[in-house]
Specification:
The protein is α/β, with parallel strands linked by helices. Helix content is 33%, strand content 19%. The protein binds zinc ion (ZN). The site of zinc ion has 5 residues, from loops.
Length: 457
């Protein structure tokens, strides 16, 4: 009996799935191809088995938090909602069909293991998240989880017996859409966010995370960091649809991530004199909003000059009456750049506005050795992978910062847009993503051909 066979006999996934109360039944499969890929032909894809598998899985979950007949509409899959629980139940069922051992860590993240990891024999992990922003796209998150499932299925179909265990994570609440903190599950798992602070967060209906977890059957007394679960991962590779336009203009379906850009948020205040909108002559006004409007323009120009990104997306006008001249404006700046020097240069240009830093996250560089291995593995399978940075945050960054060697693969996004229903990856590119991930997992986990042939563990 191989390790894989032993794991199959345990089949604990169903029992774990049952613990999560309130999950509606997983929808039955209705068609072999989701509407957003209707124009594509799975058979035309390079790897038909993987294309069929991916299309089937995306179809399976397409009606969860979404109208599957309307590819132009978005997905609503906030963490710990009925929709999220349906996705977790679906994930458990898929893992069960692969004979994986499903566990839930103390922070509510689902991990499914092929083989049995231990701190002395840690595994290679992959995966992403299944939750979405409000009105989000089909790929942000699910592509990483579904590609991981497809990759494990491909390895099993090829008769591979990995020397190291392989794990798939469905990280909880990556988007932070409901409780206001992104990468919620990985932050709690790694201790970057303490349980006391986490459990009292409330959504816009006043429901606390504690209440949401209670109703999902997650043990809130044990909720918190889980170093024992983290110790089971020797290396982690997250596959994600690219959130940006870089690959759209290239011939590469896949890229390896170098780093997450440094980014921060700043606040600036602009004063004026509030007065009557009707009785104050135009030439006697000191309108704070008129003065403040130069700030978004200056930020835009500074970002252009230094190859950075700057956005003023939120402002508060006081006293806020339609018939009162604005007396005070507060503006919030979000600024990011590939390198910290560029970000500093933007802030220097904006110094006359006295921006006050509200938050700052330095760059996260993914593990150099792991990145180099991925590039080499991809070259071996004929996928030249450019290395690019990303201006979006990911669970992978949290894991890297906690000391787990981590890397990321990006799959080309044909529209470049993200957090909207218009984000789009072709089936063919997604198949290449699975091919890349399969090669990376196989390469990192080590392979043997089977008992007696390669020393399967
Ligand atoms: Zn994501």
């Amino acid at each position: 009996m191989t390790q894989f066979d032993r794991d199959r006999t345990q089949q604990p996934a169903v029992a774990v799935a049952r613990r999560e109360r309130g999950a509606p039944p997983v929808p039955e499969q209705t068609s072999a191809m989701p509407a957003f890929w209707q124009d594509e032909d799975a058979a035309a894809s390079a790897d038909t088995a993987v294309a069929t598998d991916l299309a089937r899985m995306f179809t399976d979950i397409d009606s969860i938090g979404h109208d599957p007949t309307r590819p132009d509409t978005g997905y609503h899959r906030a963490a710990w909602t009925r929709e999220d629980l349906a996705l977790r139940a679906w994930f458990a069922r898929e893992c069960d069909s692969l004979g994986l051992d499903l566990r839930v860590d103390a922070a509510g993240n689902q991990w499914a293991w092929w083989g049995t990891p231990s701190p002395q024999h840690p595994g290679v992990t992959t995966g992403s998240h299944l939750d979405s922003v409000p009105d989000g796209g089909a790929f942000d998150g699910p592509l990483g989880v579904l590609s991981a499932l497809a990759a494990v299925r491909a390895l099993q179909a090829a008769g591979v017996h990995p020397a190291r265990p392989i794990g798939i994570v469905n990280a909880s609440d990556e988007e932070g859409a409901r409780f206001g903190i992104a990468c919620f599950g990985s932050r709690v798992l790694t201790g970057a966010l303490g349980p006391a602070r986490a459990l009292v967060r409330t959504d816009q209906d006043g429901t606390s995370l504690r209440e949401a977890l209670d109703s999902a059957g997650i043990d809130t007394d044990a909720y918190g960091p889980d170093p024992a679960a983290l110790a089971l991962t020797a290396a982690h590779v997250e596959l994600h649809v690219e959130q940006g336009y870089w690959l759209a203009d290239t011939h590469s379906p896949v890229a390896v991530a170098t780093h997450i850009w440094p980014h921060g948020r700043w606040r600036t205040e602009v004063g004026g004199v509030p007065d009557h909108a009707g009785t104050t002559p135009m030439e006697r006004r000191d309108d704070a909003l008129l003065s403040a409007l130069a700030f978004p323009r200056d930020a835009h120009d500074a970002a252009l000059a230094h190859g950075a990104r700057a956005t003023v997306g939120h402002l508060e006008v006081l006293p806020g009456g339609a018939n009162v001249i604005p007396g005070h404006v507060t503006l919030w700046l979000d600024a990011r750049a590939s390198e910290e020097e560029a970000l500093s240069a933007v802030l220097e240009d904006l110094a006359p506005w006295d921006p006050v830093q509200e938050s700052f996250t330095p760059a996260t560089h993914f593990d150099a050795q792991l990145r180099a291995r991925l590039v080499a593995i991809l070259a071996d399978v004929g996928l030249g992978a450019p290395e690019i940075g990303t201006a979006a945050g990911h669970d992978a960054g949290i894991l890297q910062n906690s000391g787990t060697p981590t890397a990321m693969l990006f799959v080309r996004n044909r529209t470049g847009s993200s957090h909207t229903p218009t984000e789009f990856a072709t089936l063919s590119d997604c198949v290449d993503g699975v091919r890349a991930l399969t090669a990376c997992l196989g390469g990192l986990a080590g392979q043997s051909l089977g008992p007696g042939e390669g020393g399967a563990s």
